[in-house]
Fold:
Amino acid sequence: RGNTVRFVGFIRHVMIGREGLHRVALLERVASLGGGRPVSFITTGNIAFDLAPAALEDFVEALEDEIAVIIVGAAIYARTLEHLRAIIFSKPFAQTPFGDEVVERVVSFAKAPIPIPDKMPVYSKRRDVCVFRINGREAFGVSRPVDGRISGAGGLIEWLVGQPITTRSFGTVSRIVEKEPAA
Structure:
């Protein structure tokens, strides 16, 4: 594998099998563009692959172009497996503004660094969603039930960061990292 690194790509707007983008076709596209040992996780457009870090930008652009033929608006937010392990190791949800009321823990991935607002944490109007941590190109949010309803944190995070993002349950990210062997 030489100078390759294991990456995980989170694809925005993709559900595997929907609109004709099947797992096998996606993995074939990844491999044809140079992504080694491609693997797909869950159905929300999560892929892992080996690639030289210097080739990542061109690889992502080419894969986005190929997916866009099938699904408009798909974008890939790639992180190294080691970076994701560091996020998990940091225990970002050990303390949250909602304490035990939390029913959803999410991490949102952006392509550019996210500016940190002057006042953190940031709450939704209903105070059922809170963005409480921003670190580089990731934002962390939680949701809790209010009046018997639960809202997702992704919309508040995208509004807050002012750029397109893709959001995953922290459990999903953790499961992907657990399934990938250590380097």
In short: The helical segments are 23-32, 56-68, 81-89, 154-161, 170-179. The chain has five helices and nine strands. Residues 69 and 146 are 40 Å apart (CA to CA). Residues 56-68 form the longest helix (13 residues).
